[in-house]
Design goal:
- There is one protein chain.
- By secondary structure, the chain is α/β, with parallel strands linked by helices.
- About 25% of the residues lie in helices and about 25% in strands.
- It has a five-stranded parallel β-sheet with strand order 3-2-1-7-18. Strands 9-16-10-11-12 form a five-stranded parallel β-sheet, with helices on one face. It has a five-stranded antiparallel β-sheet with strand order 21-22-25-24-23, with helices on both faces.
- The termini are far apart.
- The model has no long low-confidence stretch (mean pLDDT about 95).
- Bound molecules: flavin-adenine dinucleotide.
């Protein structure tokens, strides 16, 4: 008896993974993959580096070819083949052969949709002028490279300061261009909380990138000399020889919508935990689907390669009768540019508030990525979010030059395992002087948070600093205090605290700060033992500088 017939729309991250997994599970199935592009299984994530000439050989981006699929997996891949319709009743798809300009139908037992997402390209005046690009496919990146080769651009504008925008900023700078990044939000990397994103902004500035925040592009014009003018809402105008639009993507859900499949509120295809759509014979995976956030349980669009690959496997398992379930998406992501790494996993403060989750607390810390005595230690700026009542881990974000992604990966796995801050305290992580410290930043984050959950320390809310009537105590050394302190704070160095305790008010809360938080914690413990109500400003003046960049910090 012939095996089942599985058709897959889209042959890159989700589709290719699903096809290969299907073959491993079912030797008899007939598997056909359709992609409207010239390539399948290519490395979208490598495209910015191909533009930047870091990757020079285009073929390196092609992970698997149709020939490899045929020879190794007995899977038929049809490129330049756009699927333009689904007849659910008849269980057929209509395919347009883009080379031969003809249409035909194919029948299926199971259909998998992995059509990805399309870059946003709003109908702004001048959007179709030459020199304005988006980046999604190998031909897109080739076009940008060709433009660079032909016109030798000096000035580039990147619209959008998300992950792809910042990777493009670095790669265009690498090609010798002066780069301006225009971002509508008031911060770079909008999914992050602002006090971590600010480190990314500082790095861009220090590397010569002009960053325009809180302003949106409205139009493009051509100059007489053949260049472009990029106009913004606030009336600014930037010259550019090349523009890259990186303002996000929308799920390619039209095919599913036309077929009457359920579409979610965010515009993605709705699926169950086995990636099955509202039609039991059709599955959907990747950037085109809405996913449940693992922490907040909200429906979200999370266009990342890891989830697309995992979903492809889950769909293949389900088609083959296995009970594998997709666990949801944590949004674990990393981005590197100009020597800086920014990474995140799980919920942010923003996403928790958006989901109406108020039972959380966050701690800030700024440890070295390895011990201070070994040369080259770099600070990791880390924010950890956890449930206040029991310490369940909710999310983490970090920025720094080294060791960032390792810490976020550890916390990502801890979140998936539903671990707590107490588990991070006890994590046994590898250590030698050039890699970490006996108490790793992950342990530190756990310890600081666990101290709070146990009631050994109470954190003061940074965001209420401007309105508080608390007594502000700074326990750093006088020379540190003199170099810049929170306005209105009083300096009593930690070493003098016990002998000068009478100087502190017993009727008021005392909010304690130091350089990065450690001495403030020690001080809080001393004050608590003397019956005073002390609260720790987590992360110290280092956190204050990013929390209130134009705020109360002033030389005393
Ligand atoms: C420049 C760039 C950098 C990225 N960097 C990272 C990164 O560093 N880390 C990360 O996690 N993620 C990254 N991503 C995101 C990641 O590439 C995507 O999340 C992932 O590729 C999604 O897989 P997918 O299968 O859903 O869609 P895709 O990989 O986009 O594949 C969809 C395919 O379907 C085809 N298709 C669509 N409609 C049809 C149709 N009707 N008929 C036939 N074919 C069709 C498309 O042509 C396309 O080839 C990056 C993306 C880009 C563009």
């Amino acid at each position: 008896m012939a095996g089942k017939r599985v058709l897959i729309v889209g042959g890159v991250a989700g589709g290719a993974t699903c096809a290969a997994r299907l073959r491993r599970l079912d030797e008899d199935a007939e598997i056909l993959v359709f992609d409207r592009g010239h390539y399948v299984s290519f490395a979208n994530c490598g495209l910015p580096y191909y533009v930047g000439d870091v990757i020079q050989d285009e073929t390196k981006l092609l992970i698997a070819t149709p020939t490899l699929f045929r020879d190794r997996f007995n899977i038929e891949v049809r490129t330049c083949s756009e699927v333009v319709g689904i007849d659910r009743e008849a269980q057929t798809i209509t395919v347009r052969d883009l080379d031969k300009e003809r249409e035909y139908t194919e029948g299926y037992d199971s259909l998998v949709l992995s059509p990805g997402a399309a870059p946003l390209r709003p109908a702004w005046p001048g959007i179709d002028l030459p020199g304005i690009f988006t980046l999604r496919t190998v031909p897109d990146s080739r076009e940008i490279r060709n433009w660079i080769g032909a016109t030798n651009p000096r000035k580039a504008v990147v619209v959008g300061a998300g992950f792809i925008g910042l990777e493009m900023a670095e790669n265009l700078a690498h090609r010798g261009m002066s780069v301006t990044v225009v971002e509508m939000a008031n911060q770079v990397m909008p999914p992050l909380d602002p006090e971590i994103a600010v480190y990314a902004a500082q790095q861009l500035g220090s590397k010569g990138v002009t960053l325009v925040l809180g302003d949106g592009v409205t139009a493009f014009e051509q100059t007489g000399a053949g260049g472009l003018i990029v106009r913004t809402q606030k009336g600014a105008a930037f010259e550019a020889d090349l523009v890259v639009l990186a303002i996000g993507v929308r799920p390619e859900a039209q095919l599913a919508k036309d077929a009457g499949l359920e579409i979610g509120e965010r515009g993605g295809i709705r699926v169950d935990s086995q990636m099955r759509t509202s039609d039991p014979r059709i599955w959907a995976v990747g950037d085109a689907v809405e996913v449940k956030n693992y922490v907040t349980c909200e429906w979200e669009l999370v266009p990342l390669a890891g989830p697309a690959n995992r979903q492809g496997r889950v769909a293949a398992d389900a088609i083959c009768g296995r009970d594998t379930k997709f666990r949801g998406v944590q949004g674990t992501a990393v981005c590197g540019f100009f020597g800086m790494t920014v990474a995140m996993t799980g919920a942010t403060e923003k996403s928790l508030l958006r989901a109406g989750i108020g039972d959380f607390e966050c701690v800030y810390l700024h440890p070295g990525h390895h011990v201070g005595y070994y040369p080259g230690a770099q600070a990791i700026h880390l924010k950890l979010l956890y449930r206040k009542t029991d310490g369940l881990l909710l999310g983490a974000q970090a920025a720094g030059e080294k060791g960032v992604e390792r810490r976020i990966d550890v916390i990502a796995q801890a979140i998936q395992a539903k671990s707590t801050v107490f588990d991070l305290e006890e994590s046994e992580l590898c250590y030698a002087p050039q890699y970490g410290s006996g108490r790793d930043p992950v342990n530190f984050a756990g310890m600081i948070a666990a101290n709070a959950v146990r009631g050994d320390v109470e954190f003061a809310p940074w965001r209420e600093l401007d309105s508080t009537s608390a007594f502000l105590l700074d326990v750093r050394e006088p020379e540190e205090f003199a170099a810049g302190a929170i306005a209105g704070s009083v300096n009593i160095p930690l070493g003098q605290l016990r002998s000068r305790i009478a100087e502190l008010p017993s009727s008021k809360e005392i909010w304690v700060t130091c350089g990065v938080g450690q001495r403030a914690y020690y001080a809080c413990r001393i004050l608590a033992r003397h019956g005073l109500h002390a609260r720790d400003l987590s992360g110290g003046v280092q956190t204050y500088r990013v929390m209130y960049p134009h705020g109360r910090l002033q030389p005393s």
